[in-house]
Amino acid sequence: MDFSQYSFNPVDHEFLQDPYPAFAYLRDKDPVHWSDLGLWVVTRFEDCRATLVGKHFGQGDFVKNIQLFYGDDFDVMSHPSYAWRSRVFVMQDPPAHTRVRGLVSGALSLKRIRAMEQRIRQLAVQLLDDFDRSGSENFITDFAYQFPTRVMCDMLGMSDEEYPPELLLKLNQAIADSFIVFETRALSQAELDRADSQMRFLTGVFDELFARRRAHPEDDLTTAMLQSQEGGDTLTPEELSTSVIGLFGAGFETTAHMLGNGMYCLGKYPEQRQHLVDDPGLAAHATEEILRYESSLQASYRTALAQQTIAGQTIERGQRVLAIVAAANRDETHFDNPEVFDISPREQKPLTFGGGIHYCVGAELARLEGRVFFEELVQRYPNFSVDVDNARLRQAFLFRGFEYLPVYLQGK
Ligand code: HEM
């Protein structure tokens, strides 16, 4: 690819197939890149980290940031899907962010996550066996999308009786259709209509769940969120449903594609696959390497709250910066042999879960799901194979993963 006139374009087909050459070019030649989209793009590890943790970067004016894609006449807040996104705490700056994050992460404690390990293992085994018996070959739809959803439902106390498989499929579809509002582009009218109606559906489902737990508390995350308190403060009903949709969605495509991208990498690099089969104790390191090498969330945005510089480039107050963590994770000044997929322990941690005040609240849960899944996979199905030549990538930038990934648990 000729990069002499390069302008970052997240909908370009060739770029989406393999964004890493463009990332390498940007890191080397144009580390603070002005894109025709009207935003800055940073790709080096230190610059991405500084952007994500910097006190003078925040979320900025939500409406103006979305209007960048559509034009000034676009009525952002009339869309329930964008209105939801504006309220979710990842989009807030302190002090609003500090308050809601504190209450939510108090409920989603490390203790609650660690206590889930046995149950996560049972679910991984059951869904792997179901996938094997089903004769299906699409690992993405028939395993990866189901596993994190089932884990989250379990944590929230959503029983199989109340939420049968058909309803879970509808929930998954609703999350996928409405989380499209995070993409770095204008949506079509049809996409917007679908995102809005699916957001109304999700709000209804979770409002009802909270109403039931308010009446009959249980030992689950839903009740913990209702009861979460800090200095007498609690989450309002609107904050509860906004946050739980955020948790559900934030942990869904990201975790599903972490597993899918991992399977793809293990299929593509058979010596690494063998390494893991020979030593399942490497599952935690394999998960970390998958998160680094083929990050399922490629980037995060910030807005400059005051004029400042990144790597010598002035960023004006109000300008948007896209920090591409997937590019940072391949920075040769930070990682040894970053273009090599190697599941042996590495000293440096990837930037995949972000940093600073917005550091992913589900990072430990995602890591646990990854470790448990890869341990069970290689112990129960050591002959598994992945048909990487026939895998089909999704055509989306922000959440990177496959729509079709043929996996044969008994080998082919
Ligand atoms: C492989 C899986 C995951 C990846 C790659 C990922 C990545 C990220 C990143 C990069 C951020 C920071 C965004 C920013 O700074 O703008 C973030 C925030 C967040 N993540 Fe995750 N995440 C994953 C799984 C999860 C899970 C399982 C949950 C929930 C159970 C979750 C919940 C959240 C929430 C609520 C935030 C917002 C935190 C805040 O704004 O304070 N994530 N995630």
Concise structural overview:
This protein has 412 residues and is an alpha+beta fold. It has helices at 13-17, 20-29, 45-53, 62-70, 80-87, 96-107, 110-114, 117-134, 139-144, 146-156, 165-178, 189-215, 221-227, 237-250, 253-268, 270-278, 283-293, 325-328, 363-380, and strands spanning 32-35, 39-42, 57-58, 299-304, 308-310, 313-315, 320-324, 385-386, 392-393, 402-404, 407-408.
Provide the structure class. alpha+beta
As for the CATH topology, it is Cytochrome p450
Low-confidence stretches: none
User: Cofactors and ligands present?
Assistant: protoporphyrin IX containing FE
Instruction: Label the overall shape.
Output: globular
Tell me, rounded to a whole number, the average pLDDT: 95
For the record, what is the CATH homologous superfamily label? Cytochrome P450
Query: Which range does the strand content fall in?
Result: 5-15%
Describe the structure.
The chain has 412 residues and is an alpha+beta fold. The chain has 19 helices and eleven strands. The chain has a single domain, classed as Cytochrome p450 (Orthogonal Bundle). It has helices spanning 13-17, 20-29, 45-53, 62-70, 80-87, 96-107, 110-114, 117-134, 139-144, 146-156, 165-178, 189-215, 221-227, 237-250, 253-268, 270-278, 283-293, 325-328, 363-380, and strands at 32-35, 39-42, 57-58, 299-304, 308-310, 313-315, 320-324, 385-386, 392-393, 402-404, 407-408. Helix 15 (253-268) crosses helix 16 and helix 17 (283-293) packs across helix 19. The longest helix has 27 residues, at 189-215. The mean pLDDT is 95. It binds protoporphyrin IX containing FE. Protoporphyrin IX containing FE (HEM) binds at residues 52, 89-90, 101, 246-247, 250-251, 254-255, 258, 296-297, 300, 352-354, 358, 360-362, 365-366.
